[in-house]
Amino acid sequence: GAMRSRAEVDATLQTAKLNPVELLPAVHCLSFGPQAGAGDCCLLQLEPGLCAELEAGRSLVIRGEKDEQAVLCSKDKTYDMKIADTSNMLLFIPGCKTPEELNADQASCDIIHSQVAGFSNNYWELRRCRPKLKKLRKLLMEDPYEGPDSRKDQTLTFSKYTTEDLLSLIQASEEEILHQLQIIDACKIEGYWRVLEFDYEMKLLNHVTQLIDSESWSLSKVPLRTCLEELGSLEPREMIEHILLSYGRKYIDDAGEVYFEMHEDKICRAIAQMLLQNAVKFNLSEFQEVWQQSVPEGMTARLDQLKGLALVDKTSRPETIFLLKVEDLPEGNQERFNSLFSIREKWTEVDITPYIQDLCAETQTVGALLTKYARSSMQNGVKVYNSRRPIS
To answer: PANTHER family this protein is in (predicted)?
Structure first.
């Protein structure tokens, strides 16, 4: 419409019973531009850290396949995206000056005509969330690496994933994905990320522990070079190095030689998994005996090495132990608890902790999770937790 004059503005103020003295002298007259429509623009609410990322020229990425809830990722963090509706309409006005800016600029003309470029009744709200990493292991487990002689790998039909592929498929930031690849001991073979098939991994580990034994090396000083020389004829050298990296800490001594300090707990845990994989349940005391005999000389097998891998049933006579891997359980909080309560009706906090620890957000404790998803009671003087809802 026609541009307003100062007289019209003053008349409007009078009708609205507003005292011009209490207002800034500059007046914004808004008109809608020809293409201003709803839904042309999306508003995103950013915390200061993310704002700084964008201002520094880094990008934020929205990830998720068609059937997944979208997440937004920076280089190292993941955020859930939720639409927040507002009761006030939000207007986009290019070059709009705030009251502070107008106050500073006393010379500004007293009627400013601004065109609204677009409007919105909602905005995207970001909430920091746990990266959704379960799928990463699932994708790589489609075709675990069985070694250089594997027929499957020569047929060229296996699922192949590069870092780029994983970035487009996994709802997590790049740093979170690369960190998780390290945690699950993935390795790059010919440019593709792979996890080792468990039996092949055990075969490699066995070669290394037997060599350590026959050479009488200290477990804290295993020389890379000799391992590669001795075992290189049995398996690819990069696989020998990968297994040392998976089950040891790499360091360089004063002479520049590369050594590994072997992780006792991780080796004992893997051997326990190998023993437990072939039985539904195992008599606990028999298992402990066989397990201790199976671990390398000089290592001590202890039940606390099996957190999140195996569960002891103290109620059965004799006591038993069985495989229960935290990575096989659902990723969502409620689904995780449903699944745990269908395995066992009542849990002590000590038993359930390894199976819910990974669900804790930054500041959340296991106790807070239990309060929300379980109810507690006393059983023979011990606090136990069971489901808040009936388990079908």
So the answer is: SISTER CHROMATID COHESION PROTEIN DCC1, SISTER CHROMATID COHESION PROTEIN DCC1-RELATED
Count the Cβ atoms, other than its own, within 10 Å of residue 166. Answer: 21
CB-based burial label for 339 (10 Å; 0-12, 13-18, 19+): middle
CATH of region 198-262, choose from 3.30.420, 2.30.29, 1.10.10, 3.30.2310? 1.10.10
pTM above 0.70, yes or no: yes
Taking only the tens place, the pLDDT of each residue in 37-48 is 666 778 889 988
**Main-chain phi, psi angles of 118, to 5 degrees:** 180, 170
Domain layout of the chain by residue ranges: 6-128, 133-150+159-195, 198-262, 294-387
Higher pLDDT, 389 or 374: 374
Residues in the chain: 392
**Does residue 156 surpass a pLDDT of 70?**
no
- 135 phi, psi to nearest 5 deg: -65, -30
